[in-house]
Amino acid sequence: xxxxxxxxxxxxxxxxxxxxxxxxxxxxxxxxxxxxxxxxxxxxxxxxxxxxxxxxxxxxxxxxxxxxxxxxxxxxxxxxxxxxxxxxxxxxxxxxxxxxxxxxxxxxxxxxxxxxxxxxxxxxxxxxxxxxxxxxxxxxxxxxxxxxxxxxxxxxxxxxxxxxxxxxxxxxxxxxxxx
Length: 179
Fold this sequence. Notes:
alpha+beta, five-stranded mixed sheet, 3 helices, elongated
C-alpha cells in the first residue's frame, strides 16, 4: 500500500510547521470510517477523530496527540454488539531519515537495545498525520471485546464430556446376558 492508497491522509511538511508550533484536528469522513471499519472487521465506526500538536525540534518534528473513536464490535462471548470509546495517546519524534537502504556504507546493519526509541523517519521532510492516526486507532482496538457481564463458562476438569455412545452403553448394561 502506497501513501496514495491510504484511506486517511493528511501530509504535513516540516516547512508547514511554524516555530511556535501547530495544532491540527482531524475528523474522518464516512468513507474513511467505512474503509477502516472493514479493515478492522468492525460492525460500525460512527466516530473517528485525531488531534495533533506539532513542534519543530532541531531538524526534526515532535508530534503528540490522541486518537478517539466510537468502535462497534461483536462480543467474543455472546456475539452481541459492543460499543467502546477508544482513546489512544501518542508522543512521537520524527527526524530526517537515513537513506532508504538498511545498514552502513558496507551494507552492514547492527541492532541493539537502547533506552530511547529511535525517531521515526521524515520521508521527504514530510509526515502523514492520517497514517499516524490510523496506526494508533488500529492498535487501540480491543481484540477481544466483551459485553458487560458476559462470562465464558468453560467445563471444569472434573466434568468429562458426555460421549455420543453413552446411550448405547446404558442399553448394553440393561440388556440380558447372552444377547
